[in-house]
Amino acid sequence: MMNSSSEEEVTAAVTLGLLAAWALHDLEELATVPGWWRRNLPALRERCPTVPQAVWRRAGSVDGREFAVAVGAMAAVVAAASVAGRLTGGRSAVYQSALNAFGLHGLVHLAQAALVRGYTPGSATSPLIVVPFTLWARHRLRRAGVLRATRPRDLAVGLGFAGAATVAAHAAARRLTKG
Predict the structure, then answer these.
(1) CA-to-CA distance for 52 and 84, rounded, in angstroms?
(2) What is the dihedral of CA 51, 52, 56, 62, to 10 degrees?
(3) Rounded CA gap, 114 and 175, in Å?
(4) In terms of C-beta density within 10 A (0-12 exposed, 13-18 middle, 19 or more buried), how is residue 35 classed?
(5) Residues 5, 12: Cα–Cα separation, whole Å
(6) Looking at the keywords, is Transmembrane helix present (predicted)?
(7) What is the Cα–Cα distance from 98 to 101, expressed in whole angstroms?
(8) Per-residue DSSP letters for 35-56?
């Protein structure tokens, strides 16, 4: 349905599509993270000696079950943001921040792959799903006249929120799986 101006309606594909794109991306991570870490952790430690050893110990201690629970917790966060987007016709600041963070997350995966000069979990779906979906959804929000101006501060807030949600999801997963 068109508004009185040339603006278009924001469809469920734009808002709930965030959850669908995220799920496809995280299926790749679920399938690859535990094995990839086991195979690559020694080389990463050697290649990045300035990273504190506590970080490497923590990364190496995450098993597949804990990672899957953390992904489930993040699913709840992304689902809530997607629903907020749907209920507001894409206007929700939470939805738009999550969308921006998702796209930036994809770029981080590509940077990680470039740094290690090879595959890293998430780097296959980032150029195929994450970045294209984000650009498409932002385009649709812009055409509908609901895309908020994106300043560097907004991107930092989105990444900060995503980082905090990731830390919280992993903390909850560790607590739930370690008893």
Answers:
(1) 38
(2) -120
(3) 33
(4) exposed
(5) 21
(6) yes
(7) 5
(8) HHHHHHHHHHHHH-TTS-HHHH
pLDDT tens across the length of the chain (179 residues): 444 445 689 999 999 999 999 999 999 999 999 889 889 988 888 888 898 888 888 888 888 899 999 999 999 999 999 999 999 999 999 999 999 999 999 999 999 999 999 999 999 999 999 999 999 999 999 999 999 878 888 888 888 888 899 999 999 999 999 86
The domain limits of the chain are 12-178
Residue with tokens 């504190």, as numbered in its chain: 52
Q: Which residues contact 133 (CB under 8 A, 6 or more apart)?
A: 17, 18, 21, 102, 103
Length of the chain measured in residues: 179
